[in-house]
Amino acid sequence: MSDKTADDAAVGTPPGVTVVIVDDHDVIRVGVRESLAEDLEVVGEARDVESAIEVILEAKPQVVILDVHLPGGTGGGALDVLAEILGAADAPRVLALSVSDAAEDVVATVRAGARGYVTKSISGPDLSDAVRRVAGGDAVFSPRLAGFVLDAFGAAGGEVAAIDDDLDKLTAREQEVMRLIARGYTYREVAAKLFISIKTVETHVGKVLRKLQLSNRHELAHWAAQRRIV
Amino acid sequence: MLAIAGVLIANRSGADGLAPWIIPSIVFALGLALVWSPLDRVTLEDARRPKLSGLFERDAWARLALGLAMGIGALWWFATWEFTQDPVLRAIVVPLVVLAALTLVLAPWWLRLIRQVGVERQERVREFERAEIAAHLHDSVLQTLTLIRAKADDPDAVTRLARAQERDLRAYLYQDRRTEEESVATALALAVNAVEDAQGIIVDVVSVGDAPTDERLWAAVKAAGEATSNAARHGIGPVSVYAELTAHTYEIFVRDSGPGFDPNTVPSDRLGIKQSIIGRVARQGGAAFVQSAPGERTEVSISVPREVRS
User: Fold this and answer.
1) Are the C-beta atoms of residues B286 and B302 closer than 8 Å to each other?
2) 20 to 30 Å CA-CA from A91: which of A14, A174, B118, B208?
């Protein structure tokens, strides 16, 4: 476990990542702050949409850990915050954090621009890993998110993209990677299993994230429509 | 008013050719408009919830009375009008016309009544739902919180209670409740949850695809439950369970976080893996493999073919 942490963290990680934590529950904010590793510096906290936007624009963190359900704003929670902060050129990268397992929450948040989605049951070292990974520009897929992706892109039905650029389907390789992540493999373990480098795994995951954000597949559109984003 | 004036002028100026029913019809139409007008104002603000207080202000009463008087006056004239010589025909036509006219006058009031009944029923349904949710929360969350308070000095029990309650609440909030028979994903989740409760470890379940649980899928689910139970007993958590249902096969992967073992060194009298996992799916035409080595994670892969529909 520990060697995996060190190994995964070594990939494209700038030292001393600055973080802002946004969650409406004080207990969760304290818990998240204390479970983050030493090299992650918490530069701000917020508890609702308005204060989140203010704190993030002022503190300019590298990563925002953002709860999906937030009070305030127009009622869209994290979606409101994402819409407000992602426009800037030096916009922070966002890691969504939620207790919800509902598909529309996961899909809507990722489509609105979050680069990863983890649930609140995640362990401290794993969360720190996820933050570093997001800071380094990579996507973070939990097993559950990978499962949603496979479900939404019809992977179980055997749909495979003929060309890499097909936004509405996954390539065979992307499916393999998603399947292993859904089975609980870390990126390093996926790389070992498929005889490819960790960098290649990250590239595949990044492409899947892009497809998840840009595809018009009706399953995704449907989930997104439930939260009134397109 | 202008219309009446116009007609009066037309009459005065000697146009006797004008039919005698013109003036009463106009009077009736005006009466109708007067009776309807207060209702218009009431429903303008919110069609679903008429504002009742504004309905019977003095102004509205006056309009209603005047409108009714005009309407009844016009009808009275019609009742006495000898438009034909045949008394039988008159006896039939007059009541019919009067009835239709009165219906027309009272129609909006009647519609409003229906609408109000609808609104009240909606409110009752909402009230019922609220009571239902409150009852559920009381029976589940509040009870668990009380239990947790009582067992505050037993961290294991608290963790287990909290976890079970979280799962229950999550299922209540987010999932359309389906039974084990209708959904193999639910069946698997329930099987894994049972292990979770019994062994006090955390298991993450991810399911892709769903179908009614037939005999083969049941076998796979039970084998997966057994594999999860093994992982909980011998391995360390968290355990992840991934299930994928395609048109041809159902595959389940159960994976722990170590410490692994050498499958060849398992004594042959230990029946857990052989009987409950491999044997169970083999009888359904499927296969199961255990992949592990000391110091590594253990993964059990289970797959069964799906029944071919003819």
Assistant:
1) yes
2) A174
